Amino acid sequence: MENRFGFKDFVLIVLLVAILASIWIAMKQFDRQHSQMAELVEQVKQITSAQARTERSVGQLQGLIEQGVKVSGTAATGSETPETSDPFARLKDAQVQPDYAEGDWVVDAFAAQVAKITPYISGDAYGNAIIDRVVETLANRDPDTLEWSPLLAESWQTDANLEAWQAYVDERRAMPLTREEIQQEILYEALETETEREDYIAKRLQEGRLLESIIREDDCPIALTITFKMRRGLTFSDGEPLTAHDVEFTFDFINNPKIEAPRARNGMAGIVKDIVATDDHTVVVTFAQPYFEAFGRVASLAILPKHFYSQFPPEEINKQPGLLLGSGPYRMNSPTQWVPGQPLSLVRNERYWGPTPTFDRVVYREITDDVARLTAFRNGEIDMFPSQPEQYVKLLEDEDLLKETQRFEYERPVGGYGFMAWNQLKGGTTPTRFADRRVRQAMTMLVPRQEIWDNELRGYGFGVTGPFNRLSPQYNQDLEPWPYDPERAKALLKEAGYEDRDGDGVIEDANGQPFTFKYTFPSSQGSNGFWNRVVLLIRDSFAQAGIVVELDPLEWSVFSEKLKGRDFDLISLAWSAGIESDIHQMFHSDNIGEGADNFMSYSNPELDALIEEARMTIDETERMRLWNRVHAILHEDQPYTFLYSRMSLIFVDDRFENVERVKIGLNDRTEWYVPGAIQKY
Amino acid sequence: MTSAAAASSPEVLEAAKPAAPRSLLHRTLDRPGAWVGYAWLGLIALAGIFAPFIASSHPWKLVLADGTMEYPLLAHLTPADVAIPVIAGLVVATVIARRWLAARWAWGGCVGLGVLAVALSWGLVNPPELTVFERSRIMLADGSAVSATYTLIPYSPSDRFRDQPGRGLDLPIAPNATHLMGTDRAGADLLSRMIHASRVALAVGFIATGIALIIGVILGGLMGYFVGLVDLIGMRLVEVFSAIPVFFLLLTFVAFFPRNLYIMMVIIGCTGWVGYARFVRAEFFKLRAMDFVQAGRACGLPLWSILFRHMLPNAIAPVLVAASFGVPSAILYEATLSFLGLGLVDEPSWGQMLSQATGAGGNFYWWIAMYPGLAIFLTVFGFNLFGEALRDVIDVKS
Amino acid sequence: MLSYIVRRLLLMIPTLIGVTAVVFFVMALSPGGVGGTDLNTEGELDAQSRAALRDYYNERYGLDKPLVVQYGRWLNRVSPIGFESGQAGAVEWSKPRLLKWPDLGESTSKRRPVIDLYKEALPVTLLLNVLVSPITFLLSIWAGIHMAKRKGRAFDLAAGSTFLGLWSLPQIWVGVLLLGYLASNQYLQWFPTGGLSSTRADEWAFLPSWSSGEFNRGWLLDRAWHLVLPVICLAYADFAFLSKLMRSSVLENISADFVRTAKAKGLKAKVVLYQHVFRNSLLPLITVSAGVIPGLIGGAIVVESIFSIPGMGKLSVDAVFARDRELILAGALVSGVLGLIFILLADLAYAIADPRVSYD
Predict the structure, then answer these.
(1) Average per-residue pLDDT for chain A
(2) What's the gap between Cα B287 and its chain centre?
(3) Span A48-83, pLDDT tens digits
(4) Which of A525, A538, B346, C143 has a CB 3.0–4.6 Å from the CB of A529, allowing a cystine?
(5) How many interface pairs between A and C have CB atoms less than 8 angstroms apart?
(6) CB–CB contact B340 A526 (8 Å)
């Protein structure tokens, strides 16, 4: 009987497993208690140290007052600094409201798990949302005017040296390239066969000196200098002062090739030559070429504390998920300890150099499931809920929800646009029928865009006529959108040589080739995705004009491979836009090539020249005039069919006051507050 | 398409075994469960075979204002629409011929005619490349056509009623008098999609199982016959495919290849052969030592003849049972992949419809959940009932 | 026995290499590159980051090398015995290492070490399995015995076709219906729509508690509440399948000679059933369980996607949609190892349960 396995043994085993499981659960419980305890201890420590620091600074202040030093009124406005230079004016207005109270939390939800929150290393949008609360920039966009207004800097001064720079560039361009110079180029050295090398030299001799290499030359004069004066009395959340040296460090940090910050590094390359701190409060930025976004690139740098980040080797910085310390109104409880999966909770930076931040905590919850996120919002577990149009319409019927929330429908000046790109050179070699501008115009007129805005976007979408945001001065307001006009489209197609020649309903070109093509689109969300429905609508609309469209849904990575190889007929996608967008990357003929972003191989010399000119024009009114002309040309050429832009639809919990629409969209949550009586946390 | 599985097995089996397999299939009818299975499968088979004649936006007959007639339904038939009913008819005719005329040539003739029908329909049937589903409705509305005779359900599965622009806001529409099962989220008639989807489901089920069966029988046969090194390598291959969950493999493979029904069938077939290979291997293991195999070898019969003409018929019974469970699981795989968003965009599929039942807003559309889900369930259930009955019959005999 | 286990463990190596090779080459030969999306939260493409990341991945993952080299490098990284890995995973032949930690690489879509992702996801899926397996096994043993005892009677017949029906119910349908009717705000909202815990469960006490008249369900109960629907969805089909199996196996044994002998000895019917028949009837269950448990991991793909549970299944689906090579390969490896180990465990359990089987 010793090897018998009966029912009793079975029960015994089950019992044993149950006991082990409960032990494990008990251990888990201890763990949780322990970690909560540890957090408490940490908080107590911090409160104590904060108190100590307050006492210290009060003491210092007293000393200063006794010495009779004038504390305020040090602002010296630079030539270009806007007059209203108080970045906290709006917050201060809120703080004098009778029901204003500090305290409470604001809880937001992320639709994905955040992997990294180290500034510049983090690539995802959600990670950046957290970083933006913790680190600050030299200047930011005023929410009402969209103009740059000072933040960490108190003023700045621009010195242009454009004549000398232009003269040098022109002179160098006029000088012919020598073979020796070409042979020293990196691309040349990478070539292996002799014929390739010869071809390369021939090509380079024809091209001449390129701007990007001229500006790297040592003798090339600096095009532009911007001198930032830093505010005084700035500190990081650990109490260390923030000085000009931290700005310089940030630039070096980004440009350290060992640090995985390709995005930021690329944004600086070829534009910013150097950033140098001349003393504790002055930063001199030199630019290698005049570029309209030059100021923005530097002004929007998140300033990192040198004393904190310089203690880690680059490998450590790349590897660690969360090294986050800055000067912003909120801070991580512990700037080094965060790992993915842990709650993302920012606490008030008690040492903030500006007005005391309102909320005790800014919390982010990671809820990947759409439905769960909505449920959490209904239950009051999160305080805001940005919704898709379909959802939004449904939620508007929900009385209970409407009673407890305020809602906002607005256009964002950074909102992007969806488009259809007509490939003019398939695979980079074969011209397609979309190379004919008339065909592209006709195609646009065949797309029932109004139905997309009204039905698919439930009336919260609208049309744009070009790649700029409708709220931006770049946008040419004079342009009439192309109408939905199948008859005119058919006439245009006929003019271009396409008509039904054999009576089968499909239009053919002169050689009898039927007008058929493949429509490639991203199918990331399965059969319920936005594009899946839109493409069906567009296909049916083309069918009525006698054009056969084959649908080709692709996963994102296959999709981007097709983009890279320019192996498609028609592709749909969306670009994001900025307050002022640089469209060189998408429409300039320099960017035609494998993997480049003018993937439809569109080229118009007039447009190229205008884009180049606009990019180098520093004067804003003049530049906007150029952008408007660029817009008009794109509208006429229709390299893309611009499909839609959409509004932001957001619900915010009712307990927040001072949530307002501003020009930039919704005002920042640092300006919101909850009256004391209805505070929740 | 249904002929592949049905055609190959009964004849060969009869040649080798006293217990005729036709009577085997016959005997499953003793079980009430099998009746239910047959009934439902017959229904969806009919729906699948005659889908375009049941549900189509193209009318049978369209009388134009000038009195001339058009036959849009016939004009829009695809080669598959023609070939499938023809082949189904051939199979039925053959069964009758075998039974009452005892014609030994019947299956050969069936296969020959079937191939001919496929070739002819692909060569001759030439539907317009371009389909405008709302054409007849527009013509009726603007008076250029006088009357139209529609099929039972006058909507094609991809007809999204673009002639009614205001509809977009109400989608999906709940079941009503016009749309008996409502519409899906893009506005197509759900019943019509259901009917056309039964063709997709059956096609995937049978073809994928057919592919798996062929691979499984060949590999399993070789492994069982040769043993030794071949067996060792073959078993590693079997182990590779049985170590990871089949669905994980499927998911990976399907996501990495272009969206295409045929590719999906091949992939489901290529990942599902392991079970058949094991069965065939085990049977061949036993058979290879038997006298008739030794005799065949001694006579110098070619290898394929020994393997597939003599050994296979004696090993086929358990494989057939496994295959009758394999078809529903292939159908389920297709439904699940489509449900996860890896299926086709426009082609109707039960799984894809089901995935539209719950939405981003937390909405739940019961009709989109109920009908396609029920169809998948009944089909799988039907096959399982049939398989169960078949297994019982074979078990009782042995 | 020990030598048998060692032999089986060694045989796993070629199988695992085969598994990952199949997955790797299918991925590599299909069109499309390695994932890693550069879309923002609105699903829009950000021009600046696109330009920056263009060559980043090639450089980082050595994608410009031949396929065999890439696979070899991957194999070297994950194998416990091998060489040091250098830039882009290149094998440094001069630095052999015995026993190193397998390096599963970094996920391109989630930008985190793959091993961390699996460390988070695996326990979730195992939790589901640990809950589901005993329930299904115990219930189906009970149901199977009772059906067998009442063979041919109404209960047996009704249960037989019900179980076949249950087994045929597609998981996707059951999931959608459960979600739609029991968890949506249009019908009964008894259960949560998905996830493993409520958003604030981490701040709650572990056990349910009443404080100042308000009931707080606590972490444990909350977790259980979230698991009800997924567990039902995972369990019903296997329950049906195993019950039928148990029934037929009990029936087979009841008519066996040794049972007749036992009855002839004058043993009570109960004793015969539970001492003699029961034990022998468990054998086929053990054999099948080798397939059922990896099957559960596969089934978790569907259930975890429907109920958005962050386990292995959800991770695999995410990985596949994002074409995250490292994550998919690791998924194949992990599920392969698990599958093989379960097969081995089932074989061992069989040997313990059936004294006639010996592996020595």
Answers:
(1) 85
(2) 32
(3) 767 766 766 776 677 667 665 544 433 333 345 555
(4) A525
(5) 135
(6) yes
